GDSL family lipase
Amino acid sequence: MTNMKKLAAVILGVGLLAGCSSQPAPPSQSTEESPAPWSPEVYVALGDSYSAMGSTALPLDPPNTCVRAQDSYPELLAKELDVETLANVTCQGATTLDVLSSAGEHPPQVDALTPITDLVTLSIGGNDASFILMASCLERGAQESTCQQEHGQQIALEISDLPRRLDVLYEELAKRAPNARVVATGYMPLITSTDDCAAIAPLAATDRQWLSQSIQDINLAVADAAARHGALFVLPDDAAQHTGCSPDPWVDFTGENTGSFPMHPTHAGQQAMADAVARALSA
């Protein structure tokens, strides 16, 4: 509910041949090879289910309660960047507390960080703001649309506290991996305020607006925290065109047609995020 170098081709013109030769000047050619894309040596992926879950058809790695898929964006990104070492400790249900401490059955995610970590991706904040309650409004298909009435005040308070929680987390990241580039990834929107499809028909327009705005508010808090701490914030520019109502969803309400987990990124969504992070790191 995973926080970028410029690729430039340096072309040097070759001088014209000296003397009175009637031969035409040779064409310009590169005297230096283009720099290779940055390839991190040690990449640590932190976060929740939006960075852990992928296709349901693929075996989980490892097959535990974190539901960490082989086509989650950290796994795809590591291949794209030709990373030497990936420590993927993302876990479904994780909050900032789970990243920082042993709040449940898993050790603190920050334990995977070391001084030689040179890339960190971070997908966190949604569960701190009760994203699951927002998603449940879509899952239950309520005949009476009362999501904002039931959960609005609680979620507003949680979102208002999110900057403080994220600041604490970034301070710990800086201590444990002081030389790492950090990329914070946003949450693919489940719906926009203008979406209209059968799956969200039971939701009143006011609840659609509230749900859409709440996800935007979470992303804004995540982006602002990244900016305060010198990290990159990444969300594909066209994510709003790939909601659960779109013909090509990057998040799916049920997962039935895309082989993904309900209310989570599809394989296409995870690939889009991996590509967006790679582009941001090479910019």
Remarks:
- The domain at 42-282 is CATH 3.40.50.1110 (Rossmann fold).
- The chain has one domain: 42-282.
